[in-house]
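README, section 4: Worked example with a bound small molecule

Sections 1 through 3 covered apo chains. Here we extend the same pipeline to holo records, where the ligand is supplied as SMILES alongside the sequence. The molecule in this example is pyridoxal-5'-phosphate. Nothing else about the input changes; the structure line simply encodes the ligand pose together with the chain.
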Amino acid sequence: MKVKGEIYNFCAGPAQLPKEVMEKVQKELRDLDGCGMSILEISHRSEAFKEILGEAKTRLKGLLSIPDDYSILFLQGGASLQFPMVPMNFGKGAYVITGRWANKAYEAAKLQGRGEAFSGSADRNFEYIPKIYREDIPKDAKFLHICDNNTLYGTKFFTPPETDLPLVSDMSSCILSAPCPVEKYSLIYAGAQKNIGPAGLCVVIIKNSFLDSAGDEELPLMLRYKTYAEHDSLYNTPPTFAIYVANLVFAWLEQKGGLKVMEEINREKAKLLYDCIGNSALYLNKVSPRDRSIMNVPFRLRRRELEPVFLEEAEKAGLMNLKGHWSIGGIRASIYNAMPKAGVIALVNFMQQFERENL
Ligand SMILES: Cc1ncc(COP(=O)(O)O)c(C=O)c1O
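The generated complex, written as C-alpha coordinates:
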Protein backbone atom coordinates (compact mmCIF):
# COMPACT_ATOMS: atom_id res chain seq x y z
CA MET A 1 0.00 0.00 0.00
CA LYS A 2 1.30 3.46 -0.88
CA VAL A 3 0.69 6.15 1.72
CA LYS A 4 0.98 9.87 1.14
CA GLY A 5 2.67 12.08 3.71
CA GLU A 6 4.63 11.24 6.86
CA ILE A 7 4.84 7.58 7.91
CA TYR A 8 5.14 6.55 11.55
CA ASN A 9 6.11 2.94 12.16
CA PHE A 10 4.86 1.49 15.47
CA CYS A 11 6.29 -1.99 14.86
CA ALA A 12 7.42 -3.91 17.97
CA GLY A 13 10.54 -5.06 16.13
CA PRO A 14 12.38 -4.78 13.87
CA ALA A 15 11.44 -1.24 14.70
CA GLN A 16 11.82 2.27 13.39
CA LEU A 17 15.40 3.58 13.51
CA PRO A 18 16.34 7.26 13.93
CA LYS A 19 16.01 9.11 10.63
CA GLU A 20 19.43 10.72 11.08
CA VAL A 21 21.03 7.28 11.50
CA MET A 22 19.33 5.93 8.37
CA GLU A 23 20.54 8.94 6.40
CA LYS A 24 24.12 8.46 7.60
CA VAL A 25 24.02 4.74 6.74
CA GLN A 26 22.74 5.60 3.27
CA LYS A 27 25.41 8.26 2.77
CA GLU A 28 28.27 6.02 3.92
CA LEU A 29 27.11 2.71 2.47
CA ARG A 30 29.34 2.74 -0.61
CA ASP A 31 32.29 4.46 1.02
CA LEU A 32 33.05 4.23 4.71
CA ASP A 33 34.97 7.29 5.85
CA GLY A 34 36.63 7.85 2.49
CA CYS A 35 38.27 4.38 2.36
CA GLY A 36 36.51 3.59 -0.92
CA MET A 37 34.88 0.42 0.46
CA SER A 38 31.61 -0.33 2.21
CA ILE A 39 31.20 -1.41 5.82
CA LEU A 40 29.69 -4.51 4.17
CA GLU A 41 32.98 -5.25 2.44
CA ILE A 42 35.73 -4.66 5.00
CA SER A 43 37.27 -7.25 7.31
CA HIS A 44 36.17 -7.50 10.91
CA ARG A 45 39.90 -7.53 11.70
CA SER A 46 40.58 -4.27 9.85
CA GLU A 47 41.59 -1.22 11.84
CA ALA A 48 38.49 0.59 10.54
CA PHE A 49 36.12 -2.03 11.97
CA LYS A 50 38.04 -2.40 15.23
CA GLU A 51 37.66 1.33 15.69
CA ILE A 52 33.88 1.04 15.21
CA LEU A 53 33.69 -1.85 17.68
CA GLY A 54 35.73 0.07 20.23
CA GLU A 55 33.61 3.18 19.79
CA ALA A 56 30.39 1.19 20.14
CA LYS A 57 31.59 -0.29 23.44
CA THR A 58 32.81 3.03 24.81
CA ARG A 59 29.58 4.78 23.88
CA LEU A 60 27.35 2.05 25.34
CA LYS A 61 29.44 2.04 28.53
CA GLY A 62 29.02 5.81 28.83
CA LEU A 63 25.31 5.87 28.03
CA LEU A 64 24.44 3.16 30.56
CA SER A 65 27.19 4.05 33.08
CA ILE A 66 28.37 0.44 32.93
CA PRO A 67 30.86 -0.19 35.77
CA ASP A 68 34.49 -1.14 34.91
CA ASP A 69 34.08 -4.70 36.14
CA TYR A 70 31.62 -5.56 33.37
CA SER A 71 32.25 -6.81 29.83
CA ILE A 72 30.25 -5.78 26.78
CA LEU A 73 29.77 -8.52 24.19
CA PHE A 74 28.23 -8.50 20.73
CA LEU A 75 26.67 -11.85 19.91
CA GLN A 76 24.44 -13.28 17.20
CA GLY A 77 21.30 -15.40 17.37
CA GLY A 78 19.05 -12.62 18.64
CA ALA A 79 17.79 -12.53 22.19
CA SER A 80 16.44 -16.06 21.73
CA LEU A 81 19.87 -17.70 21.75
CA GLN A 82 20.35 -16.24 25.22
CA PHE A 83 17.38 -18.24 26.50
CA PRO A 84 19.30 -21.57 26.36
CA MET A 85 22.80 -20.07 26.65
CA VAL A 86 22.29 -18.54 30.10
CA PRO A 87 21.39 -21.85 31.84
CA MET A 88 23.97 -23.76 29.77
CA ASN A 89 26.68 -21.53 31.21
CA PHE A 90 25.37 -20.83 34.70
CA GLY A 91 23.19 -23.78 35.76
CA LYS A 92 19.72 -23.74 37.22
CA GLY A 93 17.73 -20.52 36.99
CA ALA A 94 14.72 -19.25 38.93
CA TYR A 95 12.25 -17.72 36.46
CA VAL A 96 9.54 -15.09 36.81
CA ILE A 97 6.92 -15.63 34.13
CA THR A 98 5.58 -12.23 33.13
CA GLY A 99 4.74 -12.97 29.50
CA ARG A 100 5.60 -14.81 26.34
CA TRP A 101 9.34 -14.05 26.21
CA ALA A 102 9.91 -14.74 29.91
CA ASN A 103 8.17 -18.06 29.37
CA LYS A 104 10.29 -18.88 26.32
CA ALA A 105 13.42 -18.26 28.40
CA TYR A 106 12.06 -20.58 31.08
CA GLU A 107 11.09 -23.28 28.55
CA ALA A 108 14.65 -23.26 27.15
CA ALA A 109 16.05 -23.77 30.67
CA LYS A 110 13.48 -26.45 31.49
CA LEU A 111 14.53 -28.46 28.43
CA GLN A 112 17.97 -28.71 30.06
CA GLY A 113 16.46 -29.57 33.46
CA ARG A 114 17.77 -26.17 34.62
CA GLY A 115 14.68 -24.01 35.08
CA GLU A 116 12.13 -23.45 37.82
CA ALA A 117 9.24 -21.02 37.37
CA PHE A 118 8.35 -19.78 40.88
CA SER A 119 6.49 -16.54 40.24
CA GLY A 120 4.54 -14.79 37.53
CA SER A 121 1.45 -12.95 36.46
CA ALA A 122 -0.41 -15.46 34.27
CA ASP A 123 -3.26 -15.43 36.84
CA ARG A 124 -4.25 -11.95 35.62
CA ASN A 125 -3.42 -12.30 31.98
CA PHE A 126 0.09 -10.84 32.48
CA GLU A 127 -1.39 -7.41 33.25
CA TYR A 128 0.90 -6.67 36.19
CA ILE A 129 4.41 -7.24 37.55
CA PRO A 130 4.39 -9.59 40.55
CA LYS A 131 6.20 -8.75 43.78
CA ILE A 132 9.16 -11.08 44.22
CA TYR A 133 9.66 -12.39 47.74
CA ARG A 134 13.16 -13.60 48.60
CA GLU A 135 11.79 -16.58 50.51
CA ASP A 136 9.97 -17.84 47.39
CA ILE A 137 13.10 -17.99 45.26
CA PRO A 138 14.24 -21.63 44.86
CA LYS A 139 17.21 -22.24 47.16
CA ASP A 140 19.20 -24.25 44.63
CA ALA A 141 19.00 -21.65 41.85
CA LYS A 142 22.21 -20.10 40.54
CA PHE A 143 20.54 -16.98 39.12
CA LEU A 144 17.21 -15.16 39.00
CA HIS A 145 15.85 -14.43 35.52
CA ILE A 146 13.38 -11.68 34.66
CA CYS A 147 12.15 -10.08 31.47
CA ASP A 148 12.44 -6.38 32.30
CA ASN A 149 9.94 -5.12 29.74
CA ASN A 150 7.21 -7.39 28.42
CA THR A 151 6.82 -6.44 24.79
CA LEU A 152 3.44 -8.11 24.20
CA TYR A 153 1.67 -7.19 27.42
CA GLY A 154 3.16 -3.73 27.99
CA THR A 155 4.46 -4.23 31.53
CA LYS A 156 7.81 -3.23 33.03
CA PHE A 157 9.85 -3.93 36.16
CA PHE A 158 10.56 -0.34 37.20
CA THR A 159 12.68 -1.56 40.13
CA PRO A 160 14.75 -4.73 39.90
CA PRO A 161 13.73 -7.40 42.42
CA GLU A 162 15.76 -7.68 45.63
CA THR A 163 17.76 -10.89 45.58
CA ASP A 164 21.04 -12.35 46.76
CA LEU A 165 21.30 -14.32 43.52
CA PRO A 166 22.90 -12.95 40.37
CA LEU A 167 20.14 -11.17 38.48
CA VAL A 168 19.80 -11.90 34.74
CA SER A 169 17.49 -9.77 32.62
CA ASP A 170 16.11 -9.75 29.10
CA MET A 171 16.05 -6.03 28.28
CA SER A 172 15.36 -6.42 24.56
CA SER A 173 12.45 -4.00 24.49
CA CYS A 174 13.58 -1.40 27.02
CA ILE A 175 17.36 -1.11 26.84
CA LEU A 176 18.49 2.52 26.46
CA SER A 177 14.98 3.88 27.00
CA ALA A 178 16.03 5.30 30.39
CA PRO A 179 19.02 5.12 32.77
CA CYS A 180 19.45 1.64 34.25
CA PRO A 181 21.14 0.52 37.50
CA VAL A 182 23.45 -1.92 35.68
CA GLU A 183 25.31 -2.70 38.91
CA LYS A 184 22.23 -4.52 40.23
CA TYR A 185 22.38 -7.03 37.36
CA SER A 186 24.93 -9.75 36.66
CA LEU A 187 23.89 -10.25 33.06
CA ILE A 188 21.77 -8.09 30.78
CA TYR A 189 20.93 -9.17 27.25
CA ALA A 190 19.05 -7.34 24.54
CA GLY A 191 18.13 -8.24 20.98
CA ALA A 192 19.06 -5.19 18.91
CA GLN A 193 16.01 -4.76 16.69
CA LYS A 194 14.10 -2.30 18.89
CA ASN A 195 16.32 0.34 20.47
CA ILE A 196 19.75 -0.58 19.09
CA GLY A 197 19.82 -1.54 15.41
CA PRO A 198 19.45 -4.45 12.98
CA ALA A 199 17.90 -7.78 14.02
CA GLY A 200 20.16 -10.74 14.74
CA LEU A 201 22.63 -8.80 16.89
CA CYS A 202 22.36 -9.33 20.63
CA VAL A 203 24.16 -7.11 23.12
CA VAL A 204 25.27 -8.77 26.36
CA ILE A 205 26.50 -6.84 29.39
CA ILE A 206 28.00 -9.21 31.93
CA LYS A 207 29.65 -8.78 35.31
CA ASN A 208 33.16 -10.22 35.12
CA SER A 209 32.89 -12.20 38.38
CA PHE A 210 29.69 -13.83 37.06
CA LEU A 211 31.41 -14.56 33.75
CA ASP A 212 34.27 -16.23 35.66
CA SER A 213 31.77 -18.44 37.50
CA ALA A 214 30.48 -20.04 34.27
CA GLY A 215 30.63 -23.85 34.27
CA ASP A 216 31.18 -24.12 30.54
CA GLU A 217 33.91 -26.74 30.08
CA GLU A 218 31.58 -29.14 28.25
CA LEU A 219 30.10 -26.50 25.96
CA PRO A 220 31.03 -25.84 22.34
CA LEU A 221 33.20 -22.70 22.17
CA MET A 222 30.52 -20.71 20.36
CA LEU A 223 28.12 -21.23 23.27
CA ARG A 224 30.49 -19.99 25.99
CA TYR A 225 30.34 -16.34 27.06
CA LYS A 226 34.03 -16.55 27.89
CA THR A 227 34.87 -17.18 24.24
CA TYR A 228 33.31 -13.84 23.25
CA ALA A 229 34.87 -12.02 26.19
CA GLU A 230 38.37 -13.44 25.58
CA HIS A 231 38.23 -12.50 21.88
CA ASP A 232 36.55 -9.10 22.29
CA SER A 233 33.52 -10.39 20.32
CA LEU A 234 35.83 -11.29 17.42
CA TYR A 235 36.16 -15.07 17.89
CA ASN A 236 34.37 -15.49 14.57
CA THR A 237 33.01 -12.91 12.11
CA PRO A 238 30.60 -10.79 14.11
CA PRO A 239 27.57 -9.04 12.55
CA THR A 240 29.70 -6.12 11.39
CA PHE A 241 26.98 -4.08 9.71
CA ALA A 242 24.69 -4.41 12.74
CA ILE A 243 27.48 -3.28 15.09
CA TYR A 244 28.22 -0.33 12.78
CA VAL A 245 24.54 0.75 12.90
CA ALA A 246 24.42 0.21 16.68
CA ASN A 247 27.41 2.54 17.03
CA LEU A 248 25.58 5.22 15.04
CA VAL A 249 22.47 4.78 17.21
CA PHE A 250 24.63 5.15 20.34
CA ALA A 251 26.15 8.34 18.89
CA TRP A 252 22.63 9.62 18.12
CA LEU A 253 21.61 8.98 21.73
CA GLU A 254 24.66 10.90 22.95
CA GLN A 255 23.70 13.81 20.70
CA LYS A 256 20.15 13.76 22.07
CA GLY A 257 21.62 14.30 25.53
CA GLY A 258 21.81 10.74 26.91
CA LEU A 259 19.37 8.46 28.68
CA LYS A 260 17.96 10.89 31.25
CA VAL A 261 16.77 13.06 28.40
CA MET A 262 15.46 10.01 26.52
CA GLU A 263 13.55 8.90 29.59
CA GLU A 264 11.84 12.29 29.86
CA ILE A 265 10.85 12.21 26.20
CA ASN A 266 9.72 8.58 26.42
CA ARG A 267 7.62 9.24 29.53
CA GLU A 268 6.01 12.21 27.87
CA LYS A 269 5.16 10.17 24.75
CA ALA A 270 3.75 7.29 26.81
CA LYS A 271 1.67 9.66 28.95
CA LEU A 272 0.04 11.16 25.86
CA LEU A 273 -1.06 7.71 24.79
CA TYR A 274 -2.14 6.38 28.20
CA ASP A 275 -4.10 9.60 28.86
CA CYS A 276 -5.84 9.27 25.51
CA ILE A 277 -6.81 5.67 26.38
CA GLY A 278 -7.81 6.57 29.95
CA ASN A 279 -10.04 9.44 28.82
CA SER A 280 -11.81 7.39 26.18
CA ALA A 281 -14.97 5.32 26.17
CA LEU A 282 -13.70 3.20 23.27
CA TYR A 283 -10.12 2.21 24.15
CA LEU A 284 -9.03 -0.01 27.01
CA ASN A 285 -5.67 -0.85 28.61
CA LYS A 286 -5.93 -3.10 31.68
CA VAL A 287 -2.30 -3.00 32.79
CA SER A 288 -1.84 -1.96 36.40
CA PRO A 289 -0.87 1.76 36.07
CA ARG A 290 2.37 1.52 38.10
CA ASP A 291 3.65 -1.29 35.84
CA ARG A 292 2.87 0.32 32.50
CA SER A 293 5.66 0.11 29.95
CA ILE A 294 6.83 3.34 28.34
CA MET A 295 7.94 1.42 25.23
CA ASN A 296 5.01 -0.86 24.31
CA VAL A 297 1.43 0.29 24.79
CA PRO A 298 -1.10 -2.45 24.02
CA PHE A 299 -4.82 -1.70 24.05
CA ARG A 300 -8.15 -3.04 22.86
CA LEU A 301 -11.25 -1.47 21.43
CA ARG A 302 -14.31 -2.09 23.61
CA ARG A 303 -16.09 -2.80 20.35
CA ARG A 304 -13.68 -5.50 19.18
CA GLU A 305 -15.35 -5.81 15.80
CA LEU A 306 -13.94 -2.35 15.04
CA GLU A 307 -10.30 -3.36 15.53
CA PRO A 308 -9.67 -4.40 11.88
CA VAL A 309 -11.29 -1.14 10.71
CA PHE A 310 -9.13 0.84 13.17
CA LEU A 311 -5.97 -0.81 11.80
CA GLU A 312 -6.96 -0.29 8.19
CA GLU A 313 -7.83 3.38 8.70
CA ALA A 314 -4.65 3.93 10.71
CA GLU A 315 -2.50 2.61 7.85
CA LYS A 316 -4.26 4.93 5.42
CA ALA A 317 -3.25 7.77 7.76
CA GLY A 318 0.39 6.63 7.72
CA LEU A 319 0.29 4.98 11.19
CA MET A 320 1.81 1.60 10.44
CA ASN A 321 2.15 -1.75 12.21
CA LEU A 322 -0.23 -1.13 15.09
CA LYS A 323 -1.53 -4.70 15.12
CA GLY A 324 -1.00 -6.51 18.44
CA HIS A 325 1.15 -9.66 18.59
CA TRP A 326 -0.45 -12.50 16.63
CA SER A 327 -0.81 -14.61 19.79
CA ILE A 328 -3.04 -12.09 21.62
CA GLY A 329 -4.47 -9.73 19.00
CA GLY A 330 -5.69 -6.21 19.78
CA ILE A 331 -3.66 -3.09 19.10
CA ARG A 332 -0.12 -2.27 20.21
CA ALA A 333 1.84 0.94 19.74
CA SER A 334 5.57 0.42 20.19
CA ILE A 335 7.07 3.82 20.87
CA TYR A 336 10.78 3.14 21.14
CA ASN A 337 13.46 5.85 21.27
CA ALA A 338 13.31 6.52 17.52
CA MET A 339 9.58 7.30 17.55
CA PRO A 340 9.32 11.10 17.60
CA LYS A 341 6.73 12.81 19.80
CA ALA A 342 5.06 13.99 16.58
CA GLY A 343 4.32 10.33 15.75
CA VAL A 344 2.55 9.78 19.06
CA ILE A 345 0.60 13.02 18.66
CA ALA A 346 -0.48 11.89 15.17
CA LEU A 347 -1.65 8.57 16.67
CA VAL A 348 -3.54 10.25 19.51
CA ASN A 349 -5.27 12.62 17.07
CA PHE A 350 -6.22 9.68 14.88
CA MET A 351 -7.58 7.71 17.89
CA GLN A 352 -9.70 10.64 19.06
CA GLN A 353 -11.09 11.20 15.59
CA PHE A 354 -11.82 7.48 15.16
CA GLU A 355 -13.64 7.45 18.48
CA ARG A 356 -15.78 10.45 17.54
CA GLU A 357 -16.75 8.75 14.30
CA ASN A 358 -17.44 5.33 15.74
CA LEU A 359 -19.01 5.70 19.14
C1 LIG B 1 11.52 -9.10 25.36
C2 LIG B 1 11.92 -9.92 24.17
N1 LIG B 1 12.79 -10.94 24.34
C3 LIG B 1 13.18 -11.70 23.33
C4 LIG B 1 12.71 -11.50 22.05
C5 LIG B 1 13.19 -12.37 20.93
O1 LIG B 1 14.16 -11.72 20.20
P1 LIG B 1 14.85 -12.35 18.94
O2 LIG B 1 13.80 -12.48 17.90
O3 LIG B 1 15.93 -11.37 18.61
O4 LIG B 1 15.40 -13.67 19.31
C6 LIG B 1 11.82 -10.45 21.81
C7 LIG B 1 11.35 -10.24 20.44
O5 LIG B 1 10.95 -9.32 19.93
C8 LIG B 1 11.41 -9.65 22.91
O6 LIG B 1 10.54 -8.63 22.74
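What to look for in the output: The chain has ten helices and 14 strands. The mean pLDDT is 97.

Section 5 describes how to batch many such records.
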